[in-house]
């Protein structure tokens, strides 16, 4: 039976269920007991202070500590509150976390889940708003996922916690705070890595939209439908591994590809998929690949400027119209 | 109220489907979208769902064959609704429908309870040409009885039909795969996330070579031979229940890596029974690989209405004469079956020779395999 | 004094092994037979062997890039080290780590490149030991140069805050890469920093194996008793330069001579001879035996199979291949 949960409840429930299921799972991070955003709120009452562990404010060191715990039989869930702050931990994440298993010849897998919040639009200005997913795609050995519904948030997080590989889960602040709701089964389930979903079917263009951008794409689809343009919207759910099959099966049908992300344009997720399209699937394309992403500037504080900065329904509509 | 469950049209050519499994007992409560039956065509098995919640009543039995559009079951909101519906059936349909009988109940307060006998004695259906010799099974030791039905039977019927319609002839060429094998190993570094197989390489080479030999990429339709200007390569995938042949469309236009990923996707979906019937249709030529089995060569059977099929036997080290020296090379037999009605021996051999020429020379295949 | 003669002899043999390993490494480099850069710990053997001596097999060791001392001390064999150093498939890291040694069966989780990143990892392994209610201790062996990494502070902070079973073993060898320690530190010692987090500490002579061993034994016992972290600073002198190829012009030769007079291996041998644990002949025999073991390990290493393209994309994820 399914009930309706919001995004935050789905995350909270996934953590609680996995902690009940496996005593080696524990949460650590800054203020995880109080939980300023709420994803881990209330867990300390059930699991105690040892398993819901508040840490000092030291992103790189707490990431290292989580990795050490993962080397020694635990399955930590580390919260790096804002993705912007995860940059402080990039030595651990990019130099060591994803590479540890390989460099030790498979002796030390690191079953560590890192959760971090991305996304602008909350008027938090330049240092608390960035979507920095693409900073992680160059690091080998990581799994990167970005859910956009409560169902996926719970299912992907459970997969992450059970995985023997390090996983970074990007949670969008608009989904956390905006209370997006959806059906979530009561029974145990997981969402496998590397499986995209087609959120909307269409013949004219394939729109690959990461995370929250899927909702902007759905709005764009309504507007485009008035001109009889039917876009197909794909939510990749996993950034690494990427479900190339689903994306390019769609491109084979539509011949047009638009990639939408909230992060910045240069060297972004869109660049990676566009390169795949041009390199491996060139013959499927009937039109140039389009990328919709944020410009290469800091996120301005002014609400007016912030809204202009963000990719949205209108920028998606413009990109689709350029090729349809 | 009665909601019907009819057999959907699952593809272009198949007429009958076989009932493989009825997941519920008659008069069970089912929920909307619950799978209530599994049916099977020549190529796929398919789950049928209840359109609404209610009581399920089956009008067919396991192993029955049903026409597309035929009525398989109904979901009734009440038993009485089914009883009423039952009276409107044709006599032959009624004979198959579960009958509702009155059952004495120990607790009289519950009054008369409707029940039904699901196991009404029935005659086994006769299936399409039953070639089986009548053998007295009494006093015989039997290890296992395997239904010769559904996918297995359709494969059998198709193969027999293929052999009966065409004049099939197989020509074989021993081919030096060494350079292609080296090339494949080098590609591991270029495409670490997708392992390129010989099948992937051969699909690309075939799609290229078929352009030069239109008759090999043709079909007999009525009193015409149609040479296609599209290169849809069927790739044989062995499943537990038999062999299926999903199709890589427009293989000549796709990159090697795209073809490779597509074949992996098709095989995975075929194994998980997730392919739509359309995925098996429209092939213009078929490639059948011996895979990992120890088969040196084979005489593959054409997949109608195609006119040719290429089989490849085991690829492995063998003594061979290379540049005038007896040496060990990676060899394989290419086995081309062609319909002699359409393709004479000479063009078939020329085609096979061309394949061999391409496969043995990096200068030729490197231009195609990209 | 807990160090028996038999134990002293065992530690002496290990120190000989370490020096022989590193001299052999240097020789192979000079002969052009390998390219693997060496950062040797010549003169520091009493620290590396002294800090690992009191550890149990289940205890966890994070080592340094400086030589093989602590790895030999924790039980790695010359053979395994050379298989790995030479990048062979049979190495404990399947030839993928080389200098970055890890050996799960000995509880050596690996060696980072950006030194100091493992400061917090050691806190993490100790955290797991505590959460799992084991009496396992983590020993974090580190040089004074690395102690200036920012993570040293939150790591000591967390270790003290959560009362974790971790020993910070600081080997102060007077040099931070190509500089004297006094160019990096306003103080003579690193250890008093521990006091800022309420961590008890000791500063000891790093040349005398009995001293290093016993100081470590006290610190490990403290941690194992559940009394939280402990820091020991061992004063020694890096007789080798930072890396093979560094001519070491910055080293004061007089100072070097003074320290060389207190070479840890010579000191230990003197003690063993005086106590009549070994004779001069037996010592010569032991040294020959140790060198033969190392030479044999190098020979076996060179003869072992290289990894192949099949190994290139393995070991990254728990599933096969790369994503």
General description of the model:
The complex is a heterotrimer of chains A (324), B (370) and C (323). Chain A is of the alpha/beta class and 324 residues long. Helices cover 39% and strands 22% of the residues of chain A. Chain A folds into two domains: 2-185, Thiamin diphosphate (ThDP)-binding fold, Pyr/PP domains (Rossmann fold); 197-323, Rossmann fold (3-Layer(aba) Sandwich), CATH 3.40.50.920. Chain A has helices at 7-21, 43-51, 59-71, 83-86, 90-97, 100-103, 150-162, 173-177, 213-225, 244-254, 269-280, 303-309, 313-323; strands at 2-6, 25-29, 52-54, 75-82, 113-118, 143-145, 167-172, 181-185, 197-200, 205-209, 231-235, 238-240, 257-264, 290-294. In chain A, helix 3 runs parallel beside helix 5 (90-97) and helix 9 (213-225) packs across helix 13. The longest helix of chain A is centred in the N-terminal third of the chain and has 15 residues, at 7-21. The termini of chain A are far apart. Chain B is of the alpha+beta class. Chain B contains eight helices and 21 strands. In chain B, strands 11, 14, 17, 18, 19, 20 and 21 form a seven-stranded mixed sheet that branches. Chain B has a four-stranded antiparallel sheet with strand order 1-8-6-3, covered by helices on one side. In chain B, strands 5-4-2-7 form a four-stranded antiparallel sheet, with no helix packed on it. Chain C has helices at 5-30, 45-52, 69-74, 78-85, 117-131, 152-161, 209-224, 253-260, 264-274, 280-303, 309-312; strands spanning 60-62, 138-143, 166-172, 175-176, 179-180, 201-205, 230-235. Chain C has a single domain (5-302), classed as Rossmann fold (3-Layer(aba) Sandwich), CATH 3.40.50. In chain C, helix 7 (209-224) links the parallel strand 6 (201-205) and strand 7 (230-235). Chain C contains eleven helices and seven strands. Chains in contact: A-B, A-C, B-C.
Give structural attributes.
heterotrimer; A: 324 residues; alpha/beta; Rossmann fold; 7-stranded mixed beta sheet; 13 helices; 14 strands; 39% helix; B: 370 residues; alpha+beta; OB fold (Dihydrolipoamide Acetyltransferase, E2P); Chloramphenicol Acetyltransferase; 4-stranded antiparallel beta sheet; 8 helices; 26% helix; elongated
């Amino acid at each position: 039976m399914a009930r309706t949960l919001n995004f935050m409840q789905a995350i909270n429930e996934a953590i609680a269920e996995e902690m009940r299921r496996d005593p080696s799972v524990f949460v650590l991070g800054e203020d995880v007991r109080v939980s300023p955003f709420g994803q881990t709120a209330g867990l300390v009452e059930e699991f105690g202070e040892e398993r819901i562990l508040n840490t000092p404010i030291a992103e790189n060191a707490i990431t290292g500590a989580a990795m050490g715990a993962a080397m020694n039989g635990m399955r930590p869930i580390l919260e790096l509150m804002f993705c912007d702050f995860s940059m402080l931990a990039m030595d651990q994440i990019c130099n060591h976390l994803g590479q540890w298993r390989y460099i030790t010849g498979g002796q030390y897998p690191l079953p560590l889940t890192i959760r971090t919040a991305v996304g602008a639009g909350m008027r938090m200005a330049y240092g608390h708003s960035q979507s920095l997913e693409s900073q992680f795609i160059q690091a080998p050995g990581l799994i990167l996922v970005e859910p956009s519904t409560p169902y996926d948030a719970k299912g992907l997080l459970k997969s992450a916690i059970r995985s023997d590989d390090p996983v970074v889960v990007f949670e969008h602040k608009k989904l956390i705070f905006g209370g997006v709701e959806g059906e979530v089964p009561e029974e145990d389930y997981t969402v496998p890595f590397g499986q995209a979903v087609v959120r909307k079917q269409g013949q004219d263009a394939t729109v690959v939209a990461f995370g929250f951008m899927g909702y902007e794409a759905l709005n764009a689809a309504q507007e485009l439908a008035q001109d009889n343009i039917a876009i197909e919207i794909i939510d990749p759910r996993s950034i690494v591994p990427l479900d190339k099959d689903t994306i390019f099966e769609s491109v084979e049908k539509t011949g047009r590809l638009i990639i939408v992300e909230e992060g910045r344009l240069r060297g972004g997720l869109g660049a990676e998929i566009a390169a795949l399209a041009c390199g491996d699937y060139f013959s499927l394309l009937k039109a140039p690949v389009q990328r919709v992403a944020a410009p290469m500037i800091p996120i301005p504080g002014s609400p007016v400027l912030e809204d202009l900065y963000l990719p949205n329904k209108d920028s998606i509509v413009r990109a689709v119209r350029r090729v349809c | 109220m009665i909601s019907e469950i009819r057999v959907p049209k699952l593809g272009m050519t198949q007429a009958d489907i076989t009932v493989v499994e009825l997941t519920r007992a008659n008069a069970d409560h089912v929920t909307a979208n619950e799978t209530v039956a599994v049916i099977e065509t020549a190529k796929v098995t398919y789950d049928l769902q209840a359109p609404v919640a209610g009581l399920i009543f089956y009008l067919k039995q396991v192993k029955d064959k049903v026409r597309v559009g035929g009525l398989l079951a109904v979901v009734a909101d009440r038993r009485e609704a089914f009883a009423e519906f039952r009276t409107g059936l044709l006599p032959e349909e009624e004979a198959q429908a579960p009958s509702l009988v009155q059952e004495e109940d120990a607790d009289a307060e519950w009054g008369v309870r409707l029940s039904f006998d699901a196991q009404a004695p029935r005659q086994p259906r006769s299936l399409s040409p039953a070639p089986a010799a009548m053998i007295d099974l009494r006093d015989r030791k039997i290890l296992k009885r395997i239904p010769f039905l559904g996918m297995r039977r359709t494969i059998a019927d198709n193969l027999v039909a293929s052999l009966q319609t065409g004049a099939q002839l197989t020509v074989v060429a021993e081919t030096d795969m060494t350079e292609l094998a080296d090339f494949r190993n080098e590609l591991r570094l270029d495409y670490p996330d997708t392992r390129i197989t010989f099948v992937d390489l051969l699909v690309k080479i075939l799609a290229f070579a078929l352009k030069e030999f239109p008759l090999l990429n043709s079909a007999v339709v009525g009193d015409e031979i149609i040479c296609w200007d599209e290169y849809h390569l069927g790739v044989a995938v062995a499943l537990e229940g038999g062999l299926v042949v999903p199709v890589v469309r427009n293989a000549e236009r796709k990159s090697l890596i795209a073809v490779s990923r597509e074949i992996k996707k098709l095989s995975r979906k075929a194994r998980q029974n997730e392919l739509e019937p359309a995925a098996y249709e429209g092939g213009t030529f078929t490639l059948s690989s011996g895979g990992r089995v120890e088969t040196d060569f084979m005489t593959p059977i054409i997949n109608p209405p195609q006119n040719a099929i290429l089989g490849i036997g085991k690829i492995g080290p063998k003594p061979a004469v290379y540049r005038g020296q007896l040496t060990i090379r990676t060899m394989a037999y290419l086995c081309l079956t062609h319909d002699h009605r359409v393709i004479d021996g000479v063009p078939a051999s020329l085609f096979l020779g061309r394949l061999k020429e391409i496969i043995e020379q990096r200068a030729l295949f490197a231009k195609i395999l990209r | 004094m807990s160090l028996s003669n038999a134990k002293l002899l065992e530690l002496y043999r290990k120190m000989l092994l370490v020096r022989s390993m590193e001299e052999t490494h240097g020789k192979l480099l000079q002969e052009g037979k390998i390219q693997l850069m060496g950062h040797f710990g010549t003169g520091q053997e009493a620290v590396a062997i002294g800090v690992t001596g009191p550890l149990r097999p289940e205890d966890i060791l994070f080592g340094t890039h400086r030589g093989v001392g602590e790895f030999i001390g924790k039980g790695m064999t010359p053979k395994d080290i050379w298989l790995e150093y030479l990048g062979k498939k049979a190495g404990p890291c399947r030839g993928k780590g080389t200098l970055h040694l890890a050996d799960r069966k000995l509880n050596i989780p690996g060696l980072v490149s950006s030194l100091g990143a493992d400061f917090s990892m050691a806190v993490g392994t100790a955290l797991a030991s505590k959460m799992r209610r084991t009496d396992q201790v983590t020993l974090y062996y580190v040089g004074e140069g690395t102690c200036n990494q920012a993570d040293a502070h939150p790591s000591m902070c967390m270790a003290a805050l959560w009362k974790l079973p971790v020993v910070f073993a600081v080997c102060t060898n007077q040099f931070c890469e190509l500089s004297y320690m006094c160019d990096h530190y306003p103080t003579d010692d690193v250890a008093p920093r521990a006091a800022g987090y309420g961590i008890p500490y000791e500063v000891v002579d790093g040349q005398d194996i009995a001293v290093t061993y016993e100081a470590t034994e006290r610190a490990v016992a403290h941690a194992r008793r559940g009394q939280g972290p402990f820091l020991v600073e061992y004063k020694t002198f890096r007789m080798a330069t930072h890396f093979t190829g560094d001519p070491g012009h910055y080293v004061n030769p007089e100072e070097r001579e003074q320290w060389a007079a207190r070479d840890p291996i010579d000191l230990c041998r003197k003690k063993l001879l005086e106590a009549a644990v070994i004779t001069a002949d037996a010592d010569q025999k032991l040294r020959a035996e140790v060198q033969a073991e190392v030479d044999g390990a190098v020979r076996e290493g060179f003869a072992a199979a290289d990894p192949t393209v099949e190994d290139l994309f393995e070991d990254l994820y728990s599933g096969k291949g790369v994503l």
